[in-house]
Request: fold
Amino acid sequence: MPAPELPPLPALTRAEGELIDRYLEVLDLLGRINPARGGHTYGGLRAAQALVGRAAGLRDALALMHERGESELHGGTLGRALRTLDGERRARLVSVPPEDT
Reply:
């Protein structure tokens, strides 16, 4: 049985697409570092080391948008792109999980 088809991404500029990609990379790394989720220090260390470069990529994507005159982030469109790319699940990995009861 074929996998269900994902909804299409909204139309994005190349710079917006780069912003979304870099943002999700940073989220993934922060999720790996999150001390409330447990894990091994070595994995967190490696993710923290990689975060430096990914944060610079995020900064560069935003700077490029600004240089091109893209002065606003269109939250509705970018939010749809993030939801399509599983951004909600990825962002939950950054938050503090609820207490076990």
Summary: Residues 9 and 84 are 7 Å apart (CA to CA). Residues 41-67 form the longest helix (27 residues).
